[in-house]
Amino acid sequence: MARPKLLPDNFTLCLVGTVILASLLPVHGQAAVGFNWVTNVAVGLLFFLHGAKLSREAIIAGATHWRLHVVVLLSTFALFPLLGLALKPLLSPLVTPALYAGVLFLCTLPSTVQSSIAFTSIAKGNVPAAVCSASASSLLGIFITPALVSMVVTSQAAGGGASPWHTVGNIVLQLLVPFVAGQLLRPLIGKWIERNRGVLKFVDQGSILLVVYGAFSEAVNEGLWHQIPLSALGGLLVVNVVLLALALAVTIFVSKRLGFNRADQITIIFCGSKKSLAAGVPMAKVIFASHAVGAVVLPLMLFHQIQLMVCAALAQRWGARDISSEHLAASRERPAAAVARR
C-alpha cells in the first residue's frame, strides 16, 4: 500500500515518539548518568563514521568554486543570525524566551550534509560543489557556532557561564577528534562504510534519538511542558516558516544577482538555507546547560521537518522542469537532424 503523502517520514515519527516517551517516562538519577555516557559514545561514533565516509576526492573536485562557497557560508553563518536578531522584536512575542533562544541557536548552526547534497542532485544542481560547501560548513561550524552562540544567544540557557573557548574545546574533543580519526582511517574502512550505508544511517538517527530523549527527559524533570504553553508551539511554527521563507528568498535573489548559472544557484539555495539537526543536537548538548537543552532543540527539530518538506518539493519541481527542458530540446533536434539527412 502506498504511503500517504501527508504522513511524515519514519525518522520524524521516531522523533515525535521519543519526545512523547521522554515526557511520560523521563530518565533520571543514576540512570540518567549512565544514559548520558552512552549518548556521548554514540555521538562520537557518529562523527567518526562521517569522517570515514567523507570523500576527499569529492571535496577537491568542488573546492575551486570559491565564490559559491563564500556565498553559502555567508548565508549559513551571517544571514541566518542577522535574520534571527532582526526578527526578534517581531517574532519573539509569539514564543517563550527559552524557545526563541533555541531559534537563535538554530540560526548559528552549520548546513546539513546528506540532505543538501541529495536535494541538489534531485534538482540537477552542482553536486561536487554541494559536497564541498556542505562539508566545509559542517567542519567550520564546530568552531563558528560556539562563537556565534556567545554573541547572539543572550539567554541563561547558555551553559553555566562557560567561556566560548572552553565550549570549543569540548566540541573539538567530542566531535572533531572522532571526525579526524575517521578521516585518517578512511583508507582502511571507507569501502566497508560505502557498502554498509545502513550502518551510518542507523548510528546517525540513533544518536540523535538518544540525545533528544536525554535532553527532553532532563527538561521534563525541570518542568518543560509547564513552562511552554500550546500557543507558543503554534507561534514557533510561524517563526520557523518565516525564517525559512526569508532564507530561501534571499539565497534565490542573491545567487541570481551574482550571475551564477542554474546549477550553482540550486546548490547555493539548498546548502545556504538548511540547518543541520545531526550537528545541532550534539552541539546543544555541549553548549547549553542540561536542563535547557530540551527547549533549545525543539525549534531545530521543527525547522528540520519543515525544511525537508519544502526543499523536497522544490527539488522535485526543479528537477522535473530540467528533465522536461531536456526532452523538449531533444524533440527539436530530431526534426532538424532528419532535414539535414535529406
UniProtKB/TrEMBL annotation:
Q: Which Pfam families match?
A: SBF_like (PF13593)
Q: Name one GO cellular component term.
A: plasma membrane
Gene3D superfamilies per record? 1.20.1530.20
Q: What superkingdom heads the lineage?
A: Bacteria
Residues passing through the membrane, by range: 12-29, 35-54, 66-87, 99-119, 131-153, 165-186, 198-216, 228-254
Keyword Transmembrane attached: yes
Enumerate the InterPro entries for this protein. Na+/solute_symporter_sf (IPR038770), Put_Na-Bile_cotransptr (IPR016833)
- Write the record's keywords in alphabetical order, separated by commas: Membrane, Transmembrane, Transmembrane helix
Keyword check for Membrane? yes
Q: Which PANTHER family match?
A: SODIUM_BILE ACID COTRANSPORTER 7, SOLUTE CARRIER FAMILY 10 MEMBER 7
Provide the protein name. Answer: Bile acid:sodium symporter
